[in-house]
């Protein structure tokens, strides 16, 4: 009886691993959003990393690290473990690229800002690459890269609607 139970458990684990291996390691999603606010205000919200703890739900704190002239910071979520991010490109009022690289995960979020009639158009592109198959499957169960980017945009939208 115990042998059958262990065999079934191993079979389930192998099935999870196989499904994870069949999922693509890299995902990318792009969203174009219009915010009814000037470019400078949208830029400030995106670039003021410690200030994001005030409008991003689920984010407990943001701490800038001193070892890299402010280009790295730690985000502490309300639940889960802290993540270290890096600002890899910054063209003021035009483009911002942030990167996360941690335990088999590499993610980037790019925001390109354009002044348009009625506000600011922001093109967000987020990529996620996960090397471990089981983490790929878990990521899909949590909505994947689409869900994360949509949540970020929704919270940014709420900030400008208040």
From TrEMBL:
InterPro entries: START-like_dom_sf
Organism: Thiothrix unzii
Gene3D superfamilies, A to Z: 3.30.530.20
Protein name per UniProt: SRPBCC family protein
